[in-house]
Amino acid sequence: MSLIQRSEEFLERSLEDPEAFGWTVTLKNPFGESQVVFGQVRHINMLIDIDTGADVQQEQASATVRISTITIGEPQKNWLVAITDTAGNEYDCYVVEAFPDRTLGIIVLKLGLLETP
């Protein structure tokens, strides 16, 4: 078995397994196509200012998914993304930046949170 095949199997287990780190990520491209995939989701509300050491109230979110599981195109800036946190809360987001790593076969999506009415 090649290293690429082993890497794909490892990513499937580590990113997509709901018993491990896999969380639901819904991608929606500009053409209205959507797809549910699983990936690692990060959503935090508090950061630490490196210069002062003070807590800074700022939400940040990202999702990491396998490129090979996405069938509706490669996510780009302004794609819509819905993520779910560990409490089951769903957040509607948009892609601020996409960082594909074709060597590892993943894409990290830096997300902005859409305002809720």
Short description:
This protein is mostly beta strands and 117 residues long. Helices cover 12% and strands 50% of the residues. Strand 4 and strand 5 form a beta hairpin.
Give a structural overview.
20% of the residues are buried. This protein has one helix at 3-16; strands spanning 23-28, 34-48, 55-66, 80-84, 90-101, 106-113. Strand 4 and strand 5 form a beta hairpin. It has one domain (3-113): Thrombin, subunit H (Beta Barrel), CATH 2.40.10. With 117 residues, it is mostly beta strands. It has a six-stranded antiparallel barrel.
List SSEs in N-to-C order.
Answer: HEEEEEE
* Number of separate domains: 1
Tally of helical runs: 1
The CATH class assignment is Mainly Beta
What's the CATH topology label? Thrombin, subunit H
Determine the strand fraction and express it as a percent band: over 45%
Structural class: mainly beta
Outline type: globular
* Global Rg: 15 Å
Helices and strands in order:
Layout: H1 3-16, E1 23-28, E2 34-48, E3 55-66, E4 80-84, E5 90-101, E6 106-113
Antiparallel strand pairs: 1-2, 1-4, 2-3, 3-6, 4-5, 5-6
Could you name the key traits of this structure?
117 residues, mainly beta, Thrombin, subunit H, six-stranded antiparallel barrel, 1 helix
